[in-house]
Please model this.
Amino acid sequence: MRVLGLSFSQSQLGSYILVLSEAKGERKLPIIIKPADAQYIALKVEGISTPRPLTQDLFRNFAELFSVELQEVFIHEVAEGIFYSKLIFTNALDEYQLDCCVGDAISMSLSFGCPIYANESVLLTAGVHMDNDGTISEDQYEKNMDTKKSRVVSVENLEKMLEKALENEEFEIAAQLRDRINSLKSKEDEGHSKS
Model:
């Protein structure tokens, strides 16, 4: 699986929808995640670095210090809309599995650069197919979520994350988000002026 899109949730205020896509297939897996996980994922996807390590980066640094490597993230079950995942670590001798909420698991996979896998039963239960115009069918998680035509993280969603970072007094992250938003807006303005 790979991260395909991230969008503010209209149905669950304060949450975000992360869309994973099969690497070799057409099914998508929309997952509702916490704002903190969405913020970290957006920073990683956009290539924004923070002056100090965030929790996921701190955990990665700690694991590397003791020669522990995250091999994969495995989303193994979904029940009543809750996704269950595991982090699978190795220290070259032994393998360890830790249960983890799915937002943290995806964040960790981006921090470590490891693959994300989903059990076939999870895809059968919660996976969706995109319509021809790139939207998820109306009976799926969100109406009109366009992931083919848009960026992984839209400017609008980055602006909402910026507001949240300011509310939480995360000023360094807010500054990085502000700079990325300004950069994207200037690229959009250049594109419109060329038309």
